[in-house]
Design goal:
37% of the residues lie in helices and 31% in strands. It has 136 residues and is of the alpha+beta class. A 5-stranded mixed β-sheet has the order 5-6-1-4-7, sandwiched between helices.
């Protein structure tokens, strides 16, 4: 068993290409914050000696929900001290400067969440995410 759990909950109503982009953006930034050691990144070596670096030893569950459930999960994670990163509709279309401005002008209650990634104590993260279904 692992001390920490890594879980993404993605908006099931968003087109798959867009959702994969949102997941990639969240993972890049969050991974750099959490760090290689905590994420248990390791190098896999194939039979030919080829190196496949920085793959996590930990499982990474991808679950699904709608925007409002993602909003509630994000809030619960923040309240319980679970590290999280989210991605919302205001973070798409246009330049990053336009996205920053659009996000700044949008109230949290009006954000359409594309996803949230959580990392923290296995039992606490499990408790917060147990009601969500696997992404298929």
């Amino acid at each position: 068993m692992y001390a920490n759990k890594l879980v993404a909950v993605m908006n099931e109503k968003i087109e798959s290409g867009i959702i994969m982009n949102a997941l990639a953006h969240m993972c890049i930034g969050f991974g750099s914050e959490i760090g290689k050691e905590s994420l248990r990144l390791t190098n896999y070596i194939d039979a030919d000696g080829g190196n496949h670096p920085d793959i996590s030893e930990m499982p990474f569950m991808i679950l699904k929900a709608n925007s409002n459930k993602i909003r509630a999960l994000r809030q619960a994670a923040l309240e319980t001290g679970i590290k999280c990163v989210d991605f919302a509709s205001t973070m798409t279309i246009g330049t990053y400067a336009e996205q920053l401005e659009r996000t700044k002008q949008t109230k949290e209650a009006d954000l359409i969440y594309y996803g949230v990634v959580l990392f923290g104590d296995w039992d606490k993260v499990s408790e917060l995410t147990r009601k969500f279904s696997l992404w298929k």
